[in-house]
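Final report, closing paragraph on structural work. Over the funding period we assembled a curated collection of sequence-structure pairs, and we close with a single example.
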Amino acid sequence: MNKVFCKVSTVLLVIIIMAGNIIGLNFNTVKADTVLTSPLISIVGYQIKTNVATNDGISFRTVCKAPDKGSIIAVDGKNYTVVDLGTIYVKDPNRSGKHSNNVLSKSYTLLDSVPCTEYGIEDQAFKYIGKSMYKNTYLTFGYIATENGIIEKKDGYTSYVRTLTNMDSFVLNSLLVRAFVEAVDEEGNNVIIYGESASKTSVAHIASETYKKSAAPNKEGHEYLYDSILHTLPTSHPYYMGEPLEYGWAGVIS
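Its predicted structure, as stored:
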């Protein structure tokens, strides 16, 4: 697991804006008064690497958006100052390609508010672990965006990314993804504020969307998605492709 959740990669990726597959968290098993959420914190889309010259294996990242550091977020009538921006990744045991078969509930996107270093977990790319374990194993990890992960600042918001590299053995696994920020309240207490929604996806899902839309930056990247991911899936998998598609076959790339 630790080799999968690695530091931010600087390779060029191609973006896929995912409008669907957003799940609400209204039925979270954690008491509502213990969770702070804001619509100002959200997932914008996903990107998958097609630069085969790097040694990071199959990699993809999530693009998130939140108020700039130092901004004030009001939640339930109380003001919080944003300190850092983050992304939560949850590896679900489900490998069927059907998100309806996910094993983990939506509550697994919540973090233990105590940073890992206070538990003696050092030298990890992630700062937080999940509030819940599955079969005595942590499958939820919270990552803080680095300066290299900041891609845009505009109108009081920051767009940022967090990359997962060497995902070859987890191409089939469903992933739950959620944006969050670290903040402090008016009394100086550290808190975590979550985006109101989490997203269900997978590396195979993102590769399929990229490939079918001819959204890779070049023909070589398009072929990489087929040869290295989609054609290697089990033939019964919903994203398996048995025949290649011509690059640009869909006409105008949107």
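Residues 22 and 199 are 5 Å apart (CA to CA). The helical segments are 203-212, 219-228. We thank the funder for supporting this effort.
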